[in-house]
Write a structure and sequence with these properties.
Shape: globular
Largest sheet: 7 strands, antiparallel
Radius of gyration: 25 Å
Distance between the termini: 50 Å
Strand content: 15-25%
Number of strands: 19
Structural class: alpha/beta
Strand order of the largest sheet: 9-10-11-15-14-13-12
């Protein structure tokens, strides 16, 4: 990234945060000047909005918030579907040309949202500056070598729908298909473009690892959009390191890689047999304890970078285990599929201390006061100048690209200010309904306690988990599906009775960790006792594959902590090997 671009982006952050409210009002004015004529806004404004070009921006903002209701994705879903079907013009949402749709992560329902990407000059400028600022703050925290090379675990998925391309947002950033100004120099990546643009996420991941190992002497950083993606790659490395070494030794790619373009370009990259390199990797990988394995495999490694806040926080200790003491884990920013939201100005902080400075020029932000268990229907939003330190809010955005007063379902806590812009911590995903019994954060806190209760932590034992509120049994109750390491003592058949007793004891302890709403409903008899169901090893990887095959982008796949999709619940139930609710231990896979 050019020094001048970095300096410009840093200036943009400083200038916009010094006078955050003014920048916010100007951002809203610009959005309305461009899109007040859309069908969506005309339906609500009905010519009652003051002319944004002539009236005080504060009065325009007040009128806009009074006339346009808060919205969620459900309010746009039918309209977006009609646009993709050709039954509705894209001008219903924005008067800028529609280029493509982004697939969002589909975190909770496993069904990705389609986020429209309009060719807005203002949006491209704001996004470009946000990503340049992100790179600038990342490089402040890292010391790069003179010839940097990065292993960037990224996957592009794209398909056509009525002439509009459906893209993965993070892959588009990398390849520059829609937004070339945001491409972070793919020539420095260890993997060829054919790997990034492949059609099978498992084959892509394998080839990313193979290319990274082949370039092990020059790679100085490992990056992934989310910590979960790095963990999945490390699990593949643990299970396939011998095969990867065979490929490097022979100079030939495994027959498991069936995509011809990917095979051809990776074999060219291998450059023939490398027996010495294969021997070095075998020696490092064959050790039993993989604590600090990453700098052993990649001796020039300077840092690892990924988002590790929110639901990604559970993976941070495992990544630290792989990285060892000498390689820092650098955090990511608060960027959503809909728009950039906040910048992480200190990447070195651990997830629990990470905060993000709201970017006043990226979108128009409102903040809806949040109180778990209470309805938000009667509450009013506050603007960027109305938030209070110590309070929690749900983030609401109005974007340049066709989303208006849109609830992100993200709950943040204001922890301070940078200049006049709020500095926020990500707390949790907002409940789908005020009546929900627990939050994602409650579940994560409970499972952190469970991991300690499992014991014998000579490596990772709890691989993954997800909660499901089962309404179909005799009485509604929470089921927590847990995957444990294959060698975990809880899965030993000869200790079945002890394992069942231990799981039931864990249930009793965890019920006190699931938040005040859950505890109140248990006390009132509205919920039956918690159930813990241990699934066989590999179950959550199967869930990930099913979600990606169903349309969730591999780049942005984040394992759901609260599952609402019945098909995925059935998949996990079919893989249960032991449960606190019965005394059976199903046959484990060989």
């Amino acid at each position: 990234m050019a020094t001048s671009a970095a300096a410009e982006a840093a200036r943009w952050v400083e200038e916009s945060t010094r006078d955050a409210l003014r920048f916010q009002l100007e951002t809203l004015r610009s959005i309305l000047e461009s899109n007040a004529g859309t069908a969506y806004l005309r339906l609500h404004l009905r010519d009652r909005l003051p002319d944004p070009a002539r009236v005080d921006p504060a009065l325009v903002a007040t009128a806009f918030r009074r006339l346009v209701p808060l919205s969620s994705y459900d309010d746009y879903a039918d309209l977006i579907e009609r646009i993709t079907d050709g039954a509705e013009t894209p001008a219903a949402l924005s008067l800028d040309p529609l280029i493509c749709f982004f697939n969002s992560s589909g975190t909770s329902t496993m069904k990705p949202k389609l986020i429209p990407f309009f060719d807005s000059i203002h949006a491209k400028s704001a996004s470009s500056l946000a990503h340049q600022a992100s790179s600038a703050f990342l490089h402040r925290c890292s010391c790069r070598s003179s010839k940097p090379c990065c292993s960037y675990l990224i996957y592009l998925t794209s398909f056509s729908c009525l002439g509009y391309s459906l893209q993965d947002l993070l892959a588009v950033r990398f390849c520059g298909s829609c937004t070339p100004e945001m491409s972070p120099r793919p020539e420095l990546d260890s993997s060829p473009r054919e790997v990034i643009t492949g059609s099978d996420a498992q084959q892509q991941m394998y080839c990313h690892l193979l290319c990274g190992l082949r370039h092990s002497a020059s790679i100085d950083c490992i990056r992934s959009p989310y910590a979960a993606g790095l963990i999945r790659a490390m699990r593949m490395l643990e299970s396939k390191w011998m095969q990867l070494c065979d490929d490097i030794e022979s100079g030939l790619v495994s027959s498991e890689i069936t995509e011809l373009a990917m095979r051809r370009v990776v074999e060219e990259l291998l450059g023939g047999p490398r027996p010495d390199l294969a021997a070095r990797i075998r020696g490092a990988s064959s050790r039993k304890n993989w604590n600090g394995i990453l700098p052993v495999l990649w001796p020039e490694l300077r840092y690892i970078a990924c988002v590790s806040t929110g639901s990604m926080e559970q993976y941070y200790p495992t990544l630290k285990h792989y990285a060892g003491e000498g390689v820092p884990l650098l955090g990511g920013d608060y960027f959503a599929s809909e728009c950039p939201i906040g910048i992480n100005m200190d990447r070195t902080r651990p997830p629990e201390l990470t905060s993000f400075v709201i970017l006043p020029g990226a979108a128009y932000f409102e903040f809806l006061p949040f109180d778990l268990g209470a309805s938000s229907a009667a509450k009013e939003t506050v603007d960027i100048s109305g938030v209070e330190v110590g309070k929690m809010y749900e983030v609401v955005v109005t974007t340049y690209r066709g989303l208006y007063r849109y609830r992100l379902n993200d709950v943040v806590k204001v922890v301070g200010f940078h200049n006049s812009s709020p500095r926020v911590e990500f707390i949790t995903r907002a409940p789908k309904q005020a009546s929900e019994d627990f939050t994602e954060r409650d579940l994560m806190s409970a499972m952190a306690s469970f991991e300690l209760m499992v014991g014998e932590r000579d490596g990772e034992q709890m691989v993954e988990f997800a909660g499901y509120l089962d309404p179909n049994s005799d009485q509604k109750h929470l089921i927590i599906f847990v995957e444990l390491s294959k060698d975990c003592t809880l899965l030993q058949r000869e200790r079945m009775e002890e394992s069942i007793t231990h799981l039931r004891r864990c249930c009793q302890s965890l019920e006190g960790c699931l938040g005040s709403v859950y505890k109140a409903k248990r006390a009132e008899g509205d919920l039956a006792a918690l159930e813990i169901s241990v699934v066989k090893p590999g179950s959550f990887e199967g869930l990930a594959r099913a979600a990606i095959e169903g349309g969730a982008p591999a780049n942005q796949y984040k394992p759901a902590k609260i599952i609402r999709n019945s098909n995925f619940v059935d998949l996990l139930k079919a893989n249960v090997v032991i449960s606190s609710s019965n005394g059976e231990l199903r046959t484990l896979p060989v």
